[in-house]
Every structure is written in structure tokens, then in C-alpha cells.
Protein 1
Amino acid sequence: MIRVLGPLVRAVLLLAAALLPSAWPAGLARPDLVLLVVAGVALLHPPRVGLLVGLAGGWLVDVVPPGAAPLGASALAYAAVGLGLGAVRRQLVLSPVLPWLATAAAAALVLGARGVSAAAGVGRALPGELAWTLGVTMLVAVVVLPLVMGLERWMTRRGWA
Amino acid sequence: MPRRTTLLAVLLTGASAAVLVVDLARPGLAAPVRAGAAAALAPVQEALAGWDDGRVAELTAERDALAAEVDRLREQAQDAAELQQLARSSTVAAVDRTLLPARVVAFAPGSSPVGGRTVTIDVGSTDGVLPDQTVVAVDGLVGRVLRVAPTSADVLLLGDPQVVVGVRFGEEGALGDVQADAAPGLPARGHGQLTLTALGDTAVETGARVETLGSPDDVPYAAGIPLGRVVSVDPDRGQLGRTAVVEPFVDTDTLDLVAVVLREEP
């Protein structure tokens, strides 16, 4: 029964991450909070957990208004991030900077996919915007990533997750 | 336990991929999902975005309404003059619009794999908003309504690749269209800049004002709404129709208060 608490806390975190950009001032690049939550969880658990959290986060990105099209594309992208970070998590324990760098690489890949699809004529993304989003996300990650990972470690110790 | 989680993960990933394919094939099928999410989450977004509610919002809405009124009256005066000149009343749409003020409560995610330009506003079908209505701000055209939920609506912004607006430009009101993507071979566009393609042989001049052409029943764009200004004309590289760079009047990155153009019941 207590193992339900971990997924519940993660669901609340993801929902907050998907909704908080509404409170962000207009005109500033918005950090990708959902990716940071997915990364924070995925970096401490087996790949399948990262995959599930990534799917859930991506689905939220897809359906929280105004949403993204086509439905399911973000879900698969964030699931890939969760899977990838979960797979390399053991190599990242050497230095506390490595998880941050791995998250930066994951964020760059997700934004890269957006850039490539825009270059292929689907959607629109300008290089400057992508760079700003990546910069702001990684700046916010300095605070948010350790917080999420700390919470995950705490929940793991208590047997919640 | 891990086996079950792995199985669940694989199943859900497969389901997501299936939904992706279905949504690509039949884009309208997922509308109830989006409407449900909007009905549940838009109130939270409104609460989160409403940090400066009250007097400022009220005055800004009033100012927007007045500016729109001035635009409308100017439009009416111009229409009247043109009507007199042309004596062809059937070609010019009557200007009878009501504006419904709205606030932007959420922007499209900046990192979804396909980049779209949409925002959510805090009025919906209960306020009389319908899909494909025009959305304006104090400076000019913002976009059109894409989806409507009971208390919120998603707006497709000018600058989204799906948006193509029929326009009149210059003093003579030559015809053309404005869209985000430039044809291959043209100089790169700056942030937020759009491409005007002239219909026919009309010369495009830098500084020319671009306004919407309008469509029957104002769907999806009402006529005579200021859109932007021509900032440079592209070199002639054999493209069909002259092209130019248009700087829109409205910066869609910093949208706050907008208005939906409602049609008055006859």
C-alpha cells in the first residue's frame, strides 16, 4: 500500500511542472520543468521507472491546454529521455555534475528533435528560441534537479518508491 | 513486481505510439481528450496566471476596447468613403463586431517534438466563443480560435505554420497572403517575422501597411484588422509573386490581454 505513495507524489510533481509555466511572466523563455522532474526520477531508478514517468510527463505536456500536436509525440520523446537517463544512471555517480550534464544532453536532444522537425517542415522552431529554452531549463535545473533527486532518495529510504 | 512494471511500461509506450499514429491520421478524434483536460485544468491555469488581476486588467481591457472601437470607426469611415467612390455596396462587408476581452493563461510548451504556436485564453463556449473566430489585441491581429472548451479556448497564433492569412497591403489595397514559412531560397527571417506573398504583379514597398482581407462571415478572419508592416522586400529570385518580410504589430511572445471578435446576431 505504501508503494502507491511514491507514484502519487511523482504524479503531483509532474502536474505542478506542467501547470506552473502559466505563472511564468510572458516574454521570458520558459524552463522545461516536466523534463527536469522526469530526469530527477529517472536518474535514480531502473529504466522502466524512468520510461513510465517520462510517458506520464509527456502525456501531460500533450494535453494540458493549449497542448501540443500530434498527441503522443511528447509522450514518446519524454519516455525516451526517462529510459535513456535510467540506463546510464550508474555511470553518473562519479561526480555530482554528471547528472546535470546528462540532463542537459537529454534536454538538448528533445529540443533538437523539435528543431529537426521544424527544419523538415513540421511545426516551427527558431534556433535562438531553442537555445534560450535550453539555457533557462539548465539554469533552473541547478536548483530543481537536486530537489527532485533529494525527494526521490528520501522516498526510496522510506520505502515509498 | 519489476516484471509487471516492465510489461506496463512496454504496453503504455505501445499505446502512446498507437495514439500518435491515430492522431496523425485523424486529428479530430482526440478532441474529447483535450476538451476534458481543458475543462479540468484551465481554472488552475487561470488562477496561476492571474497575478495582477483587478484594476490593471480592467483598465487594460477598457483601453483595448476603446482602441478597437477607434479602429472600427476608422474602418467604417474608410468603408463609407470607398463605398461612395465605388458605389458597389455589396463587395464591402458591414462592420458589426463585438469584442470579448480575454486573458492569455497558458502558452504552448517550448519543448514538444513539434513546435506549434498556440495559447490558451480564459473565455470559452459559455462566453459565446466558437472555433475559427478572430482574436485581436490592441495593436492588431493575434490569430484565430482553434479549439473551444467550456471555460477556455486555444488560439492558433499568427506565426504558426498552419496559419495563412489573406491580406491587403499598401495604399491601393493590393491582395496577397501572409504566412510564417518563407519559400526555399529566400533570405532567413528574424524572430517573429512573417512572409508576404503578393498576388499578381503588384510591387511591394517597404513600409507598406498590411491588413486582413477578411472572409465570408468573418470566419476565420474579420476584414480590415491591422496585421503588420513590410520591413524589407525580398530580391527577385524567380519565385511566384513578389515576396516581402512583414513585421507583425503584435508580439505573440508577450501576449496578455486579447479580445475575441464575436459576430453580432442579425
Note: Chain B has three helices and twelve strands.
Protein 2
Amino acid sequence: MSDDPQFTIARAIRLYNRIDELPRLNEGLEALGADLGWPGRSVMNLMLACEELVVNIVHYAYPEGGEHVIEVDVRATSDSVEISVSDGGVPFNPLETDNDPLSLLDMDLEERPIGGLGIFFVQKIMDDVQYEHAGGMNRVRMIKRF
Amino acid sequence: MNIQATEQDGITIIPLEGRLDGGNATVAETAFLQLLSEGKQRFLFDFGNLQYISSAGLRVILVAAKKLRASKGRMVCASLTEQVYDVFEMSGFTTILDIVSTKEEALEKLQAEA
């Protein structure tokens, strides 16, 4: 890893809105982690945060179907990483969920709804998560400080 | 993921390997539902070789737990690796599911209740 605290590595991972693109997302993050010397667990956490967002986009952003691009932009410095995940699908803020994810945690097996955890993981893993809709694009920006 | 379930003393062992994510969760769910429809009621989910799970993978585990609770079956999760355990804990799964550290412990548990 560079001694220069100002260094920045920027990398774009472009995916199609298909679930079989997940391996490419993971390979991209693994390669970046190897270049920067990130611990394996940190890479897995970033994979999890990105997967949850990308899977949501694949399933819900393009109800009319068709092939579209999901842009995963990673900017890493020596002590932080910022990832933005963008799509041009239907405007949707994943951070505005109907149910309070924390209320799920104490539920019994029988009453617990299936699903609803993905965005909760993103918020739990990353230090800062923000959503914006601009220029016809949904964009979730998230930051992790090491 | 190619799931090769095995049988031991009436217990169905499902080995999970690699990743259980949005890309293959439905494969695992289908495999479980098939075994359930064959009348299997006692399951050991072996997580020893699973390195990574996401919410799509957790969904499969929750579906299995709910189905087995409804049919008065039983399941135990064994040998969770670090990332998998952390994700279970974040989700509150460690309090609603039966989790043990080794496969042997899981077998003993399932046999004791036969």
C-alpha cells in the first residue's frame, strides 16, 4: 500500500442487470482488494454491501426488462473506500424501507418476514450511505473508513 | 452451487460450499424443498465450507426453518465460518436458529431428539 495518504485509486465496474453478473462484481472487488492489500474480511463486507444493492436493481429497477448497465464506481484511498452504485431504472430510494429493520431482529421465527435485510446490511457495514436521484439516475453512495 | 445431500441415521445433511448469494440461492432453496417433499424432516446444514452468505442466502435458511417449524421437523446449523456467523448475528438469526460449532455436535443433537 502506498505511503502517500493522498493517493486515490479509482475503478469502474460495469455490470449488466443480470444476476449472473455477480461473479464479475466479486472479481472486480477482489482484484482491487488485492492491489490495495485489504484484509479478506473487508473485501467480503464490500462484496456484501454491493451485492445487496445490485441484486435489488436487477430484480426491481427495470420492470419492462431489457439490458441495462449498472455502474459500480470505487474510489479508494489509503484509509477509506467510497463506492457508488448507479442505475437508470425507475426512481427508487432503497434507504426508505417500509419496515424498521431493527424490529426484525427480535422477532420469533414464525412472525419474521422473509426478506428485508439487504439494505440493513448495507447500512450496518458502511459508515455513511446516501441516496440521490439526479439526471435520470438512481445513485447510492457509500463510504467505509478503515 | 451443486448440492449433494447425504443421509446419516435418518438425518439429511446439506453441505453448503463457496458462496450462497443472489446468484445461487434459488438452487439451494429448490434442493431443500425437493428433499422436504420426499418426506425428510431432520436437517443438518453444514456451513463448514461456506465462505460467504448474503441476504438472498439467509432467505433460504429462513424458508427452511419456517417450513420445518410448520411440519414439526428440525434443523441444526453447524460449523459457521466467520463471515457467515457475522451475517447471522447481524440478522438476529443466532437467537432464532439452532447453531452449533461442529457437525458431530449437530448430529448428536438431531439424534437425541429422534
Note: The first helix of chain B runs from residue 25 to 37.
Protein 3
Amino acid sequence: MKLEDLRKMVEKMPGEELPEGGARYTVVVGMGTCGIAAGAREVLAAIIDELEGLGITDVIVTQCGCRGLCEREPLVAVTAADGEELVYADMTPERAREVVASHVGRDEPVGAYTLDAGELP
Amino acid sequence: MEELSLHILDIAMNSIRAGATEIAVEVTEDRARNLLAFAVRDNGCGMTEEQLAQIHDPFFTTRDTRRVGLGIPLLKQTAEQAGGGLAVTSSPGQGTAVEARFELDHVDRPPLGDIAATVWTLVVTNADVEFEYRHTIDGACFEVGTAELKQTLATRSLGKPRVAGALLKYLRERERRLAEGRDAS
């Protein structure tokens, strides 16, 4: 594949501008040393692959550093447009796909993996 | 960490926490010199001589969320166990360069691993940072930069899910071709 082939691949895709008012959700993957060692890179790849598969485009995916809860990494925070944040702990690629499909896709948080208020330092 | 590419991700994320807007990642494999080397160079805030003297100490960190910094000490230990070493140069306001060297055929050298996924992770999660990546294997080279990618793909963000998905396929294929010795450029 040449760069030109990549351009053609992307060119065929429908426009992906964020809606007015910004992203519906921001998904943040913990990428400190602790997160990376626990598998954050593979969790990120699963999140983006799931978003792509579901055709979800009004979401921003980004990273953050260590949040002080290294033993529960990989952590994934999902923040709604109104600022409300839920943090998921002990993520695996499979669990992260579940979170994307349910929380981001259907606005139904996955209670089984969320941290309780006060668990983050 | 089981892969050198995860160390590279970790070091480059340090660059981002240091406020870098430009990061160059270079990986070199050279069978004739029995060498695997990588370097991460940034234009971040840099470190003072005093900070630089302490970075190999796991109990030194500039972060306030956790009091132990393991990334650099682990990488140094891994490099030294594989017949190589680690060099960090930095000055305040000028940026930092981290260079690691390993004996290519040393039994204790971890595999490079999924370097395409590392480069991709950096690019898609840091829309405001420009990356230059170069991977050389025995003189053959794959080079890519975010400025060129953004211009070619006519997008300001390479992190949009569908663009990102296509980009990962592209990086994986170019890395595979390079490893198979099929890229002459």
C-alpha cells in the first residue's frame, strides 16, 4: 500500500466532521507507564475498531497520563458532552468493545466495570 | 514490558507530558553491526541537570499522581542486560532525546513488537502533536510524518475512527513489507 492508496481509501469515506456543539462523548485511555504496561495500546485499538465498525463518528478518542490508580489500569474514562465522567477499570480489548457498544453506542453505561466515586485518588 | 515498542510508546508519552509539539521516533536495525537502536527526540520543556541526574532513580518523578517513576529505569536495565545502554540528553527549554541501544542478537533483547501500533497510538491520540517516524532495517527505510499524512488525507485530525482504522492498516502493511525486505526506498 502506498500513501496514495491510503488517500484513496480515506477519500471514499463519508464526511466525519463533528456535529455542532462538539463530540457526544470523549473517550480517554490511560497511557502512563502503568497503563501501557497493562495493555492500554491494545485497548485503544479495540475502542477505535469498535467505533469504526459501529459507524460512530461523533466521538473523540484521546489519552491521559497516570491517574494514580495503577493497579486498576488500563483505565478508560468516558465523558459526556455535559461533562459527566465515568471511569472504567481493568479494561481488556473485549471489555472496552462492550463499553463502546453500550455506553457510547446506546447511552447505557456498563456498571460492572465502573469505578465508584472516591476510588480514584 | 515485553516489547521495545511499548517502551517507545512510554517514552514518547513522556515527551507529550513535557509539552512537546514535535516528536521524532527513529528505529534502526542493522545486522552488520549487530545493533538495534531507537531514539525519541522532542521539543518539550526539557530537564535541568539536577533532574537529568535523577531520572534513572525509580523514586524520582516529576509527577504528583504516583511517587515512583519506572519507565526510564526499566528501559535502562533492559538495554544494559542486552549488551547495550541508554543515553538521555536534555536541557531546559530545548527538549529531550532518549536513545537506547541493544545487541540485535542478544538472547535477553526483547522483541521490537508491534511498532506500527505504537506509532499509530501516538498519532491518533495526540491530534495537536506532529510526529516524524523512521524505521530502517539494513539500509531499507520506511518514513512517515503526520504533517504529510494530514495534508495528503486532507484532514486536521488523524484520530477520527475511520481515518484511524485505515491508517493502522497502512502502517501495518508498510512495516510488514519493510520486515520482509520488500521496501527498497
Note: Chain A touches chain B through 38 residues (CB under 8 Å).
